[in-house]
Amino acid sequence: MLELLDYRRTVSELYAQVRQHDANESIHSTWRETRDTLFGTHSQSALDDEQKAKFTGLLYYDYDPAYDVVGDFNPDVEPKEYHIDVGDDGEVHIKRVGEVTFTLPTGTGTLSVFWIMGYGGGIFIPFGDATNKITTYGAGRYLLDTIKGADLGMREGKLVMNFNYAYNPSCSYNYRWVCPLAQPESKVDFEIPVGEKVLNI
């Protein structure tokens, strides 16, 4: 349990550094290096021991500041609820509490914003895009999961949507994990060619 606490604390402290600095390639490199250390050495890594022995680092697109934007949040949406079976961890209950619209070099899109229900709660934004099953994980990636520390903060009173920090769910690395994934309303039909790529080891 203390090992999981250490892992979560490291992630939270890492994102705190990201929020404290202006978005740039240097702090993004720190984020990548810390994640590589966690994946390659930590007992709570999503990788098993055999995968760790082969691990040389996670794969990413090059950093592109044009994909660091803010989103316009709209709370006026149908409040759907999803109850997702995540194996040994039971069920994750998420509620759609809004949607966020943003514009990137490749297109303008809208994603659902979910609230993780239960003690403490947190915002959760998974997403799918046209890179899935080509260069990124087929079931989509995560942008925000504040209950686990993945929080990019606010800017100009709006949610920061820096897609350079998009990352894969644990189930993309190993079948022993079961994850909540992007729902149909959490997908855009254009490419978002930044953030983490798929890793096959």
What does this 3D model show about the protein?
- There is one protein chain.
- The protein has 201 residues and is of the alpha+beta class.
- The protein has a domain of 129 residues.
- The protein contains three helices and eight strands; from the N terminus they run αααββββββββ.
- Strands 1, 2, 3, 4, 5, 6, 7 and 8 form an eight-stranded antiparallel beta sheet that branches.
- Helix 1 runs antiparallel to helix 2.
- The longest helix has 19 residues.
- The chain is globular.
- The two termini are 27 Å apart.
- The model has no long low-confidence stretch (mean pLDDT 93).
Largest sheet: 8 strands, antiparallel
How would you sum up the global shape?
Answer: globular
- Output the helix-strand order: HHHEEEEEEEE
Estimate the helix proportion, in percent: 10-25%
In percent terms, what proportion of residues is strand?
25-35%
Runs in which pLDDT lies below 50 for 5 or more consecutive residues are none
Mean pLDDT over the residues: 93
Please compute the radius of gyration using only Cα atoms: 16 Å
State the end-to-end distance.
27 Å
Structural class: alpha+beta
Number of DSSP helical runs: 3
DSSP E strands, number = 8
Short description:
Helices cover 21% and strands 26% of the residues. The chain is built from 3 helices and 8 strands; from the N terminus they run H-H-H-E-E-E-E-E-E-E-E.
